[in-house]
Amino acid sequence: MAKLTIDDLHLSYGSNHILKGISATFAQGEIVALLGRSGSGKTTLLRSIAGLEEPSKGTITIGNSPVFDGAAGLNVPSEKRGLGLVFQSYALWPHKTVFENVAYGLRLRNVPGAEITQRVAAVLEGVGLGHLGDRYPHQMSGGQQQRVALARALVYNPPVILLDEPLSNLDAKLREEARIWIRSLIKKMNLTAVFVTHDQVEAMAIADRVVLLDGGRIVQAGTPQQLYTEPVSLFASEFMGTNNQIKSRVLDKRGGHTQIELSGFALWGKDRGGKAVGEDATGVIRLEQVAVVAGEGENCIQATLETSLYLGSQWEHVFRCGDLSLRTFGGPLAPGAHWLHLPPEQLWVF
Amino acid sequence: MNRATRIAVIVAMAIAVLAPIGLVVYQSFLDGPFFQPKTAFTLSAYEFVLDDEDFFDALWNSAVIAFGMTAIAVPVGAILAFLMVRTDLPGRRWIEPVILVPMFVSSVVLAFGFVVSLGPAGIVSLWVKSWLGTIPWYLYSKWMLIVIAGLTHVPHVFLYTSSGLRSLGSDVEEAARMTGAGPLRVALTVSLPMVMPNILYAAVLVFFLGFELFGLPLVLGDPEGILVLATYLYKLTNKLGTPSYQLMAVVVVSIICIALPLVALQRHLLRTANRYVSVKGKASAQKPVTIGFWRWPAVALIVCWLAFTVVIPISGLILRAFVSSWGEGVQLSQVLTLDHFRELTHFPNLVRGIVNTLLIASVGGALSVGVYTVLNLAAHRWQSGWTRLMDYLVLLPRAMPGLVAGLAIFWVFLFTPFLSPMRQTMIAIWVAYTLVWLAYGMRLVSGALLQIGPELEEAGRVVGASAGRVSRDLTLPLIKVGLISSWLLIFITFMREYSTGVYLLSPGTEVIGSLLVSLWGSGAVDLVTALSTVNIAMIGCGLLLMSLFGKRSHG
Question: Which of residues 472-511 of B touch A (CB under 8 A)?
């Protein structure tokens, strides 16, 4: 069942169009990442769902009840939507204790005092802060503040929980831990969650489904695997991973494959952009898909090892082939010329 | 607040601001007082004033004084700010609060202080005369008035320049030192030019205050008949014997016409100044510039300025309040007395004045802060034509000096049937005070509101609170400290206010400031100095309270 439905949503500030027709559905129990660069409209979309921005056109429906309908002039105010939102800055109220921060939403719903105590204690326990209810936000670390912000958004059982870059204020080590516990907490509570991020690794790690936005439009939506292995455009492929790019021209086409040229070597790749023979095209291959092989073969090129960077768990090698440099990972290599294999299924031609 | 409430609040404010101005403009085109039954529209009042030589004299004097005091206050204030904020000057910590004292003492009180200290029979004058045989200055000359006005307005320049300098990273100065510039050169070629928008803003402010000047010229200009616009207006009442409302209205209109463009310019400059400062906001680690030998002349400069503008007038005034008479050959130990203070208690209107001043400053000040808060909340996080209208409306009362606003409010209370019973109550005074300090108070409260991030309020909305509950449960508690310190500043401001109550002075509406003005006219020096001393003591208590509160809320 669709928990949250967005249909043809438009939003602009003056002549500046931020959202240009967004349609998406979010199923019960699903974690969805809104992924995009800054200015792609991802945060604006989240704030529109929360009722903090007013779109100009389109509809937003939570469960079966519409909360925004541009044509009907319906715009339910934030406080009536009953959603939970975790702010990027956490936005904890500095004049209230942790307990009062979390309890506020229940007080507004006229929950009896005893039940408030019990529910707040339970949710604080759930985020691992059971003993810190009497503290003030400024007495807590960034990671703890983030847990309080999450508890505050969860305590009144919202149908959908929204998270705006929830991990961006944490340092790198803490962020990796938070990825794991946020996902497991949301899954354990079987919540529907929408979160905004600009970090594709974070999006893939936490989300069941990723919605990639650019310039106020959805570029691609699907599982993390789909987005990583079957990007629909050059932009999507560049955004989701680190690539080698080969600027070239289409030599030949056959059965869903396209042949391009790299410094005299002909390479077959998957036809993704539908370019005709003779047109300019770009070949894209993930760094980890380029393999160093013993000798000449199908879809292989010869390149000179220019430099190697030691990364700890592996090496990153930079090769030069004509005027193009290619990067790949692997074990230590001797200097000089090497053969590189670019598998046709992994080389995408846009 | 919902939309309808917001609009209602803004409309109410518009009426409160526009009614007095509208009435004054209307009156200026009549041939008699507006409340008389048979009046006609005419330009005769304008003709009379524009034919009056005294008016142009006053206009010219105002311009000369405004230019002169700007030329003095700006360089002194800017250098002072640099020394205080950016150098390792000894004793900065205790000098800084003293610098602001002239801002907190009402300028009539300061003027009285200059008269009793430096006047022809003043305490310091006679002391100097006993050494030199002559007094090398004449207090009542126009030059002296300009110097005094300039030096007493140094704090305004200091305040704005120092806040700019504080937000400046010290790396720019260190770079200049590395390149080989001495401290003075650093100040003149790097630090001060970088805060030029702030200095410019302060310059316009001081120039504008020069046109508004009332207390200093009233006291110091009177003996030689030096009139400025505000004192011309004040004398106009007595000049023709009967109150000539239409003539006063014309002078008021001309004062507003001069002030309004200056206020608009100021506002424009403030915006550019803010933009500048935020660009170079890397002020994380400020290291003071070491000025070495230069600190001795610097300290000497500051001590001289403080002695002249704070120590001499105020100590002279207080001393005068405790002696029975003063003149050549008087022995201090034989004339010390508390009689003047005892005498104060014999005048019921003076006692009422002291009580009223305390009331208007404490209770009235709190109510005014309440009004400023409601007005601010009406415009809070709302982008619309209404809030822009409000921005401009706030400027209008700023263009009315206290004397003028007091007169306009007096007329409004006279003119409006349901208000006229309250004309001779403290309500009229409170309305006038609140209106005169509208722009200032609004800025104090909005400063507190700007401190809270929008997401703190949005979080409240998302969690389920209506706009009204967000204001009550989140916004107001969050700015509580800011509101209390705003109240303390308004308390001191209302305590020292003297010109606004002048036209509203009647039995029941006495405040210390307006009583001082009228007592000075009657020549009761003993009472004036005693009452001024009481006023200074009250302001001192306010300042003490403020510093205690500041310590508590920071620690």
Answer: 473-474, 477-478, 480
Please give the pLDDT value at position A99.
94
Asked if B477's CB is within 8 angstroms of A79's CB, the reply is no
Q: Which residues of B touch A104 (CB under 8 A)?
A: 460, 463, 465, 473
Q: What is the pLDDT of residue B276?
A: 53
Q: Which residues on A lie below 8 Å from B384 (Cβ)?
A: none
Q: Give me the residues of A, 275-314, that contact B with CB < 8 A.
A: none
Distance CA A265, CA A268 (A): 10
Q: Output the CA torsion B211→B213→B217→B220 (10° steps).
A: -130
* B258, B266, B419, B424 from B416: Cα distances, Å: 28, 33, 5, 14
Task: Provide the strand spans (E) within B340-422.
Answer: none
State the Cα–Cα distance between residues B529 and B175, nearest whole angstrom.
Answer: 52
ipTM of this predicted structure? 0.81
pLDDT > 80? residue B183 = no
Contact B100, B491 (CB under 8 A): no
pTM beyond 0.90: the answer is no
Q: Which domains does chain A have, with CATH numbers?
A: 2-236 (3.40.50.300), 242-349 (2.40.50.140)
pLDDT one-digit tens code per residue, A208-227: 999 999 999 999 999 999 99
* Share in percent of chain A as helix, strand, coil (round to 5): 25, 40, 35
Greater confidence, B291 or B470? B470
Over the range B100-137, which residues count as b (16 or more CB within 10 Å of their CB) and which as e?
A: ebbbbbbbbbbbbbbbbbbbeebbbbbebbeeeeebee
Provide the number of CB pairs (under 8 Å) joining chain A to chain B.
Answer: 66
Q: Determine the pLDDT at residue B274.
A: 59
Residues 6+ apart with CB under 8 A from B139: B114, B115, B118, B119, B120, B122, B125, B220
Classify strands A31-35 and A192-197 as parallel, antiparallel or unpaired.
parallel
The pLDDT of residue B555 is above 80: no
- Rounded CA separation B439/B259 (Å): 14
* pLDDT the model gives residue B313: 93
| B6, B382 Cβ separation under 8 angstroms | yes
Spans in chain A with pLDDT lower than 70: 1
User: Could you tell me the two tokens for A128?
Assistant: 């691992």
Nearest CA among A158, A217, A183 for reference residue A24: A217
Q: Which residues of A touch B453 (CB under 8 A)?
A: 89, 91
B463 and A152 within 8 Å at the Cβ level: the answer is yes
